[in-house]
Amino acid sequence: MTIDLPADWPILVVAALLVIGVLAGGLAHRMQVPGLVLFLVLGMVIGSDGLGLISFDDPNLAVVGGTVALILILYEGGLTTRPGDLRRAAAPGVVLATFGVVLTALILGLGTYLLLDVDILTALLIAAVVASTDASAVFTVLRRSPLPRRLRAVLEVESGSNDPMAIMLTIGLLETWRAQATVGPADWAVFAVLQLGGGLLVGALFGFVGSRALSRINLGPAGAYVVLALGLAGLSYGSAATVGASGFLAVYVTGLFVGARVPLHRRGIRTFHEGLANTAEVGLFLMLGLLVFPSDLPRVIVPGLAVALVLTLIARPLAVLACLAWFRQPWQDLTLVSWAGLRGAVPIVLATFPFAAGYPQGDLIFDMVFFVVLLSALVQGGSIGLVAKWLDLRAEGRAWAPAAQAVPISDINAELIEVRITDDLHLAGQQLKDINPPRGLITSIIRGGRVLLPTARTRLRNGDLVIFAAPRHPEATRHIAAWARGAPTTPVEGNGGN
Hints:
With 498 residues, this protein is an alpha+beta fold. The protein has helices at residues 8-30, 35-46, 59-80, 83-115, 120-129, 135-144, 149-161, 163-179, 185-216, 222-242, 247-261, 266-291, 301-324, 331-339, 345-357, 362-380, 384-390, 476-485; strands at 404-409, 414-420, 441-447, 450-452, 465-471.
């Protein structure tokens, strides 16, 4: 006698795919290629046009799944965007994320229309779908190929915030097709103001109110704060979408507020949502791979290659030049930012929108975008390190990483502050008796997986993680970071000494 529940087989399949996807991601890391390539290929292999293990051909379900995955990915991008990087690269990053996306779409749309046998609306749809760079792909490559701090910040801000503009362009073009009438500049202006302005306002509102609730309300178990933070993302997206604004932009802005203004539970919230976003990415790439029929790809190789060349060598460089020339960036920076415009999950998800809407060329758009994303991940993603080396653009040691990070302790007015020792820091090679931290006590040192109890003769080494315990203070982390780098600091009131 046996019991078979309807959910048994789907749970087994989904769990197996997640495990295989994560293992494929580890293999991709060792092979120095973006993980999305292997996830997409895995989806094609096990799909109905491959081994036939799973049959999936529902574009509407793909849109729903893709939308949920994008919400999680964008929210995690906002949570993990460092306020310092946002301030440092806000102007160039935001210009690239807005005007850069529009310029890229216009230039690529014109080139696609001239080179391929498609109508102007189809050409613009293809261009709008692939106009934005992908946060997950860019972040993965930057971790593997560290760049100078200024460039890293610009690329992170751009890739984390440019998806809403591409989504807005895609939806606007589809609405133009549905209206079967000419949509004038005034209609586009109103649409853009409502999408961008409304998304910013709704995101800021939920971010501000939500961050105050997370900081001031005692919810009991730590897991409750994680759930509340996730609920804020859904409320932000749904509320913005209800009033006709960009829910994706609202989610990203809400994540920025929560990540910057909730110090007490920040680590738990970030850790949970990083895992959730990674799971969403794996599932998203596998689902999109299942949606592709490999036998249809040969027909788009030539036109897809043409679109990829125009995008990479003409549209993206011209957009970067037009946006960043005002900031007097050297030509090496412009070249690398142009080459580092990786495409990933968002373009493929957006390519399902015309497909699901019944657009006449929807299947062609999806196959072409899929091919362009694969090419971008393989060629650009695998060569950014070489291009940076050729341009003599190297990271300044580990200066891009925060020198100190606060880890608040729940329920008491104290926090732990972590300092990772690197060769470029003032503390490297010094004994504890020769240094005087501006705040707190050094409680322990983690070295090579072992915990050391510090003494006056303990000498700090490269790779050590130094743990301070200190009374909570808004300026404590900044003072510790400045002290670690050897910069002058002002003693913080209430310093416990060392």
